[in-house]
């Protein structure tokens, strides 16, 4: 049947990558360092040969970039720009996969919460909600959902909903 909570797979991959890179995580899929985006994780569902929706997770990390377009310079970074070692990509991929193999298969938020929370940079981040409103994150909830405030009113958003960070 695929995975009951496919967003947790992407969040687990974010945790593994963040642990390998020694960086932070912002809900639901950003890797960050020194307040700028270092990379991200994308989880999509694709039908298998029997029509079951199966998750596919992609990880993108800015490794050796030494410059970004002006419109991204204040928001994006790379390992090279942060003065971090820039390992060969195959070694970096193997390190992340090896770290992920040490995790339990994430069926519930509690399976990844111990990995997520020490690196969580979500609180205080602004998010554009599916309706276009901008809310401020307070925390990640027990189902891996985002809890935020919109004009002082609490809102809850699932990672499966279209959310676009504003910063």
Biggest sheet: strand arrangement: 8-7-6-5-9
The rounded distance between the terminal residues' Cα atoms is: 35 Å
Content-based structural category: alpha+beta
Q: Which percent band covers the strand fraction?
A: 25-35%
Provide the helix percentage: 10-25%
Low-confidence blocks of residues: 162-167
Count of beta strands: 9
Inertia-based shape: globular
- Biggest pleated-sheet summary: 5 strands, antiparallel
Short description:
The chain has helices at 6-21, 89-101, 109-116, and strands at 24-26, 30-33, 36-47, 53-61, 126-128, 134-140, 146-150, 153-157, 164-165. By secondary structure, it is α+β, with helices and mostly antiparallel strands.
Describe, in plain words, how this protein is organized in 3D.
The protein is of the alpha+beta class and 167 residues long. The protein is 22% helix and 30% strand. It is built from three helices and nine strands. The chain has helices spanning 6-21, 89-101, 109-116; strands spanning 24-26, 30-33, 36-47, 53-61, 126-128, 134-140, 146-150, 153-157, 164-165. It has a five-stranded antiparallel beta sheet with strand order 8-7-6-5-9, with no helix packed on it. Strands 1-2-3-4 form a four-stranded antiparallel beta sheet, covered by helices on one side. Strand 1 and strand 2 (30-33) form a beta hairpin. The longest helix has 16 residues, at 6-21. The radius of gyration is 16 Å and the shape is globular. Residues 162-167 have low confidence and may be disordered.
What descriptors fit this protein?
globular, 22% helix, 167 residues, 3 helices, 9 strands, disordered C terminus, 4-stranded antiparallel β-sheet, alpha+beta
């Amino acid at each position: 049947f695929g995975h009951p909570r496919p967003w947790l797979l992407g969040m687990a991959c974010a945790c593994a990558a963040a642990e390998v890179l020694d960086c932070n995580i912002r809900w639901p899929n950003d890797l960050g360092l020194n307040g700028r985006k270092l990379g991200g994780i994308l989880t999509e569902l694709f039908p298998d040969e029997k029509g079951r929706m199966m998750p596919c997770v992609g990880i993108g990390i800015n490794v050796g970039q030494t410059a970004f377009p002006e419109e991204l310079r204040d928001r994006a970074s790379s390992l090279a720009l942060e003065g971090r070692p820039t390992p060969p990509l195959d070694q970096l991929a193997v390190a992340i996969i090896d770290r992920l193999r040490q995790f339990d298969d994430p069926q519930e938020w509690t399976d990844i919460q111990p990995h997520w929370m020490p690196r969580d940079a979500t609180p205080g981040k602004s998010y554009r909600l599916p309706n276009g409103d901008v809310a401020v994150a307070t925390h990640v909830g027990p189902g891996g959902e985002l809890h935020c405030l919109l004009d002082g009113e609490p809102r809850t958003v699932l990672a499966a909903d279209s959310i676009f960070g504003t910063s």
